[in-house]
């Protein structure tokens, strides 16, 4: 027998070069799609038999053979041979060895182009579902923690400068909201990719009387894809996963960044769970927030995958080009990275120790109730907000110069700046008063936050 490829050796005189095998083979990584590949093939054969393109006996042999191949792979008995290029050909070749001629009929009315699109889509769909489930767990953990800290006061920041008092629960729930949107994005992506490419064949459809609605339904899709040419050229589904993953990783990275800041000694707001930190080989006192730092960095990997695939796809004429084989490793890497990241950040939040005293103390600097003072001038003295802002600025300047907190500025000094100020202004300068006052829809007041936490 010639050493040319057994799938298309007919028109070849020479076998591929060693280097060609190396650049051409996707088997080393796409073997990860074996379950999806076998599932797709089983449904395809079932459909061919239903349409009388295969006999019932041929279908039975194929089903039995594919089940055996699956078992061999799962038991680690399968021989992955690089010269077979990819998982699709590796499975088919083994099937032929096991069941003989009927195995050669499986590829009727399909092509590797629609086969790979289907397998990969099945894989990405599962990853979307996995992300949704991990995100829901993270969101629940955040909400549970938030409920414990509805009244734990801390500074809210803008520009990382003390802005206004908020509760730690309010802060955590901000992240729960972000992850809630991420869930919606993954669900939406799943919905957009709910069409099955199998049966598009090479690019133009097939003359065989196939039933694509049957295959689509059996594989759990809402419908078959509508245009064969698009079906085999499309990798939007993978790009959408990567886009959702990138946004989600960006959220995780911001949370991680704040864990790094808040657990640093000058802040001391939180302690990361010790199992997610590491020590220093030289400085015995250290307890570094490594898990959070790695989370920040891994975000870059996920963005990198998105850029890789966008770049692979951007210049390709329709339909399939071999460039598209480079779609998988970046997606696999992003899936594994996101999965790990979501699990780690869930554990970090779950095991967080909160130092409420340090959070409260941090409100002693930075005049966090200056806005409350200005608001009092508007509400109680009928002064326009712009002007109230200016007056408050002068009081803050006085306080800063004399190293006082706003509550410590004597009434007489305030009245020198604004005669309408009365004793009851001191009520609103209290940080807890400030927190409780922010009752507007979506605000940080404890009752508002409880309402937010009760929402789905
Ligand atoms: N290994 C290929 C891939 O992963 C499968 C599709 C091959 N199709 C082709 N016409 N060569 O993209």
Write up what this structure looks like:
The longest helix is centred in the first third of the chain and has 37 residues, at 112-148. The mean pLDDT is 96. The protein contains 19 helices and six strands. It has helices at residues 18-24, 27-30, 34-50, 56-74, 87-99, 112-148, 168-192, 212-218, 228-233, 236-262, 290-313, 328-350, 356-361, 370-381, 385-401, 411-417, 425-428, 431-437, 446-454; strands spanning 153-158, 161-167, 195-196, 223-224, 270-271, 353-354. It is elongated, with a radius of gyration of 31 Å.
Q: Which radius of gyration do the C-alpha atoms yield?
A: 31 Å
Mean pLDDT: 96
What is the number of domains?
Answer: 3
The general outline is elongated
User: Ligands bound here?
Assistant: arginine
According to DSSP, the number of beta strands is 6
Give the strand order of the largest sheet, numbering strands 1, 2, ... along the chain.
Answer: 1-2
Q: Span between N and C termini?
A: 65 Å
Look at the helices and sheets and give the structural class.
Answer: mainly alpha
Taken as a percent bin, the fraction of beta residues is under 5%
Biggest sheet layout: 2 strands, antiparallel
Q: What order do the SSEs take from the amino end to the carboxyl end, as H and E? A: HHHHHHEEHEHEHHEHHEHHHHHHH
Contiguous low-pLDDT stretches (5 residues minimum) are none
Q: Output the CATH class name of the largest domain.
A: Mainly Alpha
The level of helicity is 55-70%
CATH architecture title of the largest domain: Up-down Bundle
Which fold name fills CATH's third level, the topology of the largest domain? Fumarase C, Chain A, domain 2
- How many distinct helices? 19
């Amino acid at each position: 027998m010639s050493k040319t490829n057994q799938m298309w050796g007919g028109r070849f005189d020479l076998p591929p070069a060693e280097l060609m095998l190396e650049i051409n083979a996707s088997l080393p990584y796409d073997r990860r799609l074996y379950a999806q590949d076998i599932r797709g093939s089983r449904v395809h054969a079932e459909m061919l038999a239903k349409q009388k393109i295969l006999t019932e006996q041929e279908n039975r042999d194929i089903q039995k053979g594919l089940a055996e191949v699956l078992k061999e792979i799962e038991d680690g008995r399968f021989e992955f041979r690089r010269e077979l290029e990819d998982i699709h050909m590796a499975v088919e070749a083994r099937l032929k060895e096991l069941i003989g001629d009927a195995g050669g009929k499986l590829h009727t009315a399909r092509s590797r182009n629609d086969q790979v699109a289907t397998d990969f889509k099945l894989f990405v769909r599962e990853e979307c579902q996995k992300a949704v489930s991990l995100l829901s767990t993270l969101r629940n953990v955040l909400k549970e923690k938030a409920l414990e800290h509805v009244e734990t006061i801390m500074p809210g920041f803008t520009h990382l400068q003390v802005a206004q008092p908020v509760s730690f629960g309010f802060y955590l729930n901000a992240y729960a909201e972000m992850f809630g949107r991420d869930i919606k994005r993954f669900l939406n992506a799943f919905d957009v990719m709910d069409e099955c490419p199998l049966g598009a064949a090479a690019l133009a459809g097939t003359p065989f009387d196939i039933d694509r609605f049957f295959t689509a339904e059996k594989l759990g899709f809402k419908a078959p894809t509508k245009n064969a040419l698009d079906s085999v050229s499309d990798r939007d589904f993978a790009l959408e996963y990567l886009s959702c993953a990138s946004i989600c990783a960006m959220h995780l990275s911001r949370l991680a960044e704040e864990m790094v800041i808040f657990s640093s000694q000058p802040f001391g707001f939180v302690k990361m769970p010790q199992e997610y930190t590491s020590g220093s080989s030289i400085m015995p006192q250290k307890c570094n927030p490594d898990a959070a730092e790695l989370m920040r960095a891994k975000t870059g990997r996920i963005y990198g995958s998105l850029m890789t695939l966008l770049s692979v796809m951007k210049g390709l004429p329709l339909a399939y080009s071999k460039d598209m084989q480079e779609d998988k490793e970046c997606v696999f890497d992003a899936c594994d990275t996101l999965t790990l990241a979501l699990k780690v950040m869930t554990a970090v939040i779950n095991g967080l120790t909160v130092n409420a005293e340090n959070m409260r103390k941090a409100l002693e600097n930075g005049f966090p109730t200056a806005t409350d003072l200005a608001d009092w001038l508007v509400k109680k003295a009928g002064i326009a907000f712009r002007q109230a802002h200016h007056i408050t600025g002068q009081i803050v300047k006085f306080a800063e110069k004399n190293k006082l907190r706003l509550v410590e500025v004597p009434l007489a000094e305030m009245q020198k700046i604004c005669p309408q100020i009365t004793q009851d202004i001191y009520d609103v300068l209290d940080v807890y008063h400030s927190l409780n006052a922010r009752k507007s829809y979506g605000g940080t007041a404890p009752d508002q936050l409880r309402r937010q936490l009760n929402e789905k």
